[in-house]
Amino acid sequence: MPTFLGAIDQGTSSTRFIVFDESTRIVAEAQIEHAQIYPQPGWVEHDPVEIWRNTQTVIAGALRTGGLQARDLAAVGITNQRETTVVWDRRTGVPLYNALVWQDTRVTEYLPVFTARPGSEFFRVRTGLPLSSYFSSLKIRWILDHVDGARTLAEQGDALFGNIDTFLVWQLTGGPRGGLHLTDVTNASRTQLMHLDRLEWDEELLAAFDIPRAMLPDIRSSSERYGTATADPIDGVPITGILGDQQAALVGQTCFRPGEAKNTYGTGCFLLLNTGASAVRSRHGLLTTVAYRFGDAPADYALEGSVAVTGSLVQWIRDNLGLIQSSPEIETLARTVSDNGGVYFVPAFSGLYAPHWNAGARGTIVGLTRFANRGHLARAALESTAFQTWEVLRAMEQDSGVSLDTLRVDGGMTDDELLMQFQADIVNRVVVRSTIKETTALGAAFAAGLAAGVFSNLDDLRARWGESRRWQPDMEDASRQQMLHRWTKAVSRSVDWM
Strand pairing of 344-346 and 430-434? Predict the structure, then answer.
């Protein structure tokens, strides 16, 4: 009888449920977008209750499409948008406020205070992360400071914090009736509250941010049996894997050896390099993060370059400017011109992340002339993703001393042939796309399958990875260097705008 694994992939713009068979072939899937809420400039929120309902809907829809029932699933894994912060009432399951999304910049007002004391290095040394609006710590603090009654509930243990993985596990395993309050090491490493070496909540960090310990979930491995779902439509199915979305993509790309790297093209762009058992502290603007921890084995670490705006720039061009009707049309529009016409687009809508970490940067379009048209703007938007990846890759090689021969890629934007060829050209590396484009969900299924005994070991997982396409660099070096120089110049116009 076939063995099936389910993966809940809860992303920034949508929620999906994908069912894999034991050969990792996709047999069923369903997906629903959720509302993006923008109450003020720089504020980005999601409704956690909508996400929970959508999760139940896509699970039911995928099972129905595949002609499957809950009992056909050996286990379920969860992968999720990281840093996005939910605080809810333990007694009712009702969120105290909308989820503050990782892109949200409202907590920027706190940065000068914490930079002055205890200082940026205090946080970086313990967590591998710079002080930034990106992570969960300051988002929790904002809710405690601005939502009536939140701090009192937190101090008495009735307000629970979690990233989306924690909120979904709690709901799936009973909610107010005994739901499990836990997370895995990869998500915990993005809160800026976990000590990176000890893999436990750090009392000095909690004191610095003034966050009650009672709010926080238990930290667990990325692959183990956490408990059994009691909620429809997967009542009775073991939950055995949790990975933050970018770590899940690293696992899905089977980058288990130090020096192997992947880049995921989604709402943002995230390049991760496996550094093995060593937590390498970056000197060039990257993040040090937990890559994964399987069962009782020691954790593996990664260097990460996080780019805030890539796929969401295409959505912006679609929704805010109306230049295209659907996201895939951007490639068609970009192909109406032979080059970018001298136009460069720095999409710093919420500041710049790696390697700049400049919260005051804002979106900038430079090089406009009367010659520029819609096609040039579309091409510049696509090229910005490749340029930002180049910046991160250069920093990563400087930090690690590793020179990559190939870059494994995944995510929705890898369907864009024009972008992938330009990516190979601008980084001057071979770019390889995996057979299964949705490696984030696959990584969650891999983690769940390891703990459930569907897969035996990492070699078993490696044997299931395949290549669907590769792009060779085909640009003269003089052209590449000129474009990189102009991109760097464009970024200099963007930083410290605010």
Answer: unpaired
Q: How far apart, in whole angstroms, are the C-alpha atoms of residue 35 and residue 38? A: 10
pLDDT tens, the chain, 498 aa long: 458 999 999 999 899 999 999 888 999 999 999 999 999 988 999 999 999 999 999 999 999 999 999 999 999 999 999 999 999 999 999 999 999 999 898 999 899 999 888 888 899 889 999 888 889 999 999 999 999 999 999 999 999 999 999 999 999 999 999 999 999 999 999 999 999 999 999 999 999 999 999 999 999 999 999 999 999 899 999 999 999 999 999 999 999 998 888 998 988 888 999 999 988 888 888 989 999 999 999 999 999 988 888 888 999 999 999 999 998 999 999 999 999 999 999 999 988 988 898 888 999 999 999 999 999 999 999 999 999 999 999 998 888 888 888 899 988 899 999 999 999 999 999 999 988 888 999 999 999 999 999 999 999 999 988 889 999 999 999 999 999 999 999 999 999 998
Cα separation, 39 vs 23, in Å, equals: 45
> Three-state SS for 88?
strand
The two tokens of residue 385 are: 């993703």
What is the 3-state secondary structure of 287-323?
EEEEEECECCCCCEEEEEEEECCCHHHHHHHHHHHCC
The dihedral over CA atoms of 421, 422, 425, 429, expressed in degrees to the nearest 10, equals -60
Evaluated on CA atoms 433, 436, 442, 446, the torsion sign reads negative
Write the DSSP string, 115-157: HHTT-HHHHHHHHS--S-TTSHHHHHHHHHHHSTTHHHHHHTT
Identify which of 176, 262, 231, 281 has the alpha carbon closest to the alpha carbon of residue 440.
Answer: 262
pTM above 0.85, yes or no: yes
Q: Is the C-alpha dihedral spanning 429, 271, 357, 35 positive or negative?
A: positive
Q: If we measure between CA atoms, which residue out of 348, 339, 361, 331 comes closest to residue 388?
A: 348
Asked if 470 and 295 touch (Cβ cutoff 8 Å), the reply is no
For 362, the token pair is 């804002």
Instruction: Dig out the tokens for 471 from the structure.
Output: 């792009």
The position carrying tokens 């069912």 is: 19
